[in-house]
Amino acid sequence: MEFFNELTQTILNGVAIGCIYGMVALGFVLIYKSTEVINFAQGELLMLGAFISYSLITQLHLSYWTALVITILAMGIVGAILERVVLRSLVGEPTYAIVIVTIGISYFIRSVVSMVPGWGTDTYGFRTPFTDKFLRWGDVVISYEYLSIVVLAFVLIAVVFVFFGYSRMGTAMRATSQNQLAAVYMGISVTRVFSLTWTIAAALGGIGGILLAPITFVHMNMGFIGLKAVPAAVLGGFTSPPGAIVGGLIIGITESLAGVYLEEGWKDIAAWIILIAVLIIRPQGLFGIQEKKKV
User: Fold this and answer.
1) Which DSSP category does 89 fall into?
2) Contact predicate 30/241, CB 8 Å
3) 3-class state of residue 111 by DSSP
4) How far is 284 from 291, CA to CA, in rounded Å?
5) CA dist., res. 242 & res. 72, Å (int)
6) SS3 (DSSP) at 200
7) Can you point out the beta strands (E) in the chain?
8) Where are the beta strands (DSSP E) in 19-72?
9) pLDDT band at residue 71, thresholds of 50, 70 and 90?
10) Residue 154 CB partners (closer than 8 Å, separation 6+)
11) Calpha distance 274→250 (Å, rounded)
């Protein structure tokens, strides 16, 4: 019975972390579907969102919910600026060149964070309305912090999917991801779609940061945690938004189980072992579609 309780608690913790991975992975997928570029700055966007929320809550003394809304808006603006100032000028350039630019953006964000007074290289934390609150289910003790992550993540993910499925701009984004040239002929502003895609992806990264911060604390290396969403995106299929969420949950649960039942160190490499296995067995991912191109 004790093993079952421990297993249940471990899986629930993994689901919470997996929801964050899934949200960040969704940002990877959205940008890849629209531009065929992997945004390696997504992890640093998560880190930046965490630092912004930290300042809003601890330095400006705003409420957690106000900080959450402002962080989402601020990160959306950051994403739009990056697309407009840096990436739009690279349209038509080789994909590898744009990928290298996203790596450069990630280092730029890290440098900026290290120079901001009150941020730097130290580790910080902040309290939320759910800190030090627990739900008891028999002998299983579940932190409200983790439960809040699951609930908030699924609500925000649902909003994103409703936007893509039922809004006019969401339809335009889906059309652009299928065929950019056809979208242009139909009168869709592809540049506007690209801008909105980066806005949403950056906002998702920021949300991941504010949700993850109370668990891992706020520090500059959070970007490396965000990069664990890459295996989640690959596992689900880099062209499948639902697959990104499922992939995130699988990675989160696997990491949590490895951290409890395997030797120290396995937790950090579990996601990458899954990534390698998936690339060998099913390169298109669990929900991805294998594309064949004639040469």
Assistant:
1) G
2) yes
3) helix
4) 9
5) 21
6) helix
7) 134-137, 140-143
8) none
9) very high
10) 19
11) 9
d(CA 175, CA 182): 8
- Asked if pLDDT for residue 56 goes beyond 90, the answer is yes
Q: What is the Cα gyration radius of the chain?
A: 19
Picking from 154-168, 172-186, 248-262, which range would have the lowest pLDDT averaged per residue?
Answer: 172-186
Return the percentage of the chain with pLDDT > 70, whole number.
96
Angle between helices 241-261 and 2-35 (to 10 degrees): 140
149, 154, 157, 162: CA torsion to nearest 10: -150
Exposure letters 204-224 (e unless 16+ CB within 10 A, then b) = bbbbbbbbbbbbbebbbebbe
Tokens for 126, please give them.
């902040």
pLDDT at 138: 72
Q: Which residues of 99-128 are buried (b: 16+ CB within 10 A; e: fewer)?
A: eebbeebbeebbeebeeeeebeeeebebeb
Q: Specify the residue for token string 């893509």.
A: 164
pTM exceeds 0.70 for this model: yes
Tokens for 200? 């949403």
